[in-house]
Amino acid sequence: MTMITRVLAGGLVAGFLDISYAIIVYGFKGVPPVRIFQSVAGGLYGRATYDGGIRTALQGGLLHFAMALVMAAVFVAAYDRLSFLQKKTPLWGMAYGLGLFLVMYLVVMPLSAIGMIRIPHGGYFLGALFAHCCLVGLPIALAARGRRPIAAL
Question: What is the pLDDT of residues 98-129, one digit of tens each?
Fold first, then answer.
């Protein structure tokens, strides 16, 4: 697989799994999918994102997948240059997911227009950690290895 193919595979699969997880978990709390996508766009618009209707929901979806592709591109580039990542790739992928979790909650979200500065607690903490490690980092790492992210498990 080419580098671009691996980035696309990892980013799109990770983005799909991550947003699906959010839709399912928050769906049980009565949050509609449109609001979840709007929440992603909230990083750009702040609370006004919820007044933007389908427009900000679509922007949130594009932003979500753009971030997933950037995350995949960073890991694939590192994978090709750092031989230790090529050993125990699933473990390094989950470690990468942990790093992404920390960066998202400690850097990206606090600096965004939403200004969220708290890490989820209780079950939501474990769920968010699981999602970043297993549904984002792991498929990105498996795609970097050049195999289908799901089939390579």
Answer: 999 999 988 998 899 987 667 777 778 899 99
Q: What is the value of pTM for the model shown?
A: 0.90
Q: What is the pLDDT of residues 126-143, one digit of tens each?
A: 999 999 999 999 999 999
Please, are residues 27 and 100 in contact by the beta-carbon 8 Å criterion? Answer: no
As a residue count, the chain comes to 153
Place of tokens 């992928």: 93
CB-based burial label for 127 (10 Å; 0-12, 13-18, 19+): middle
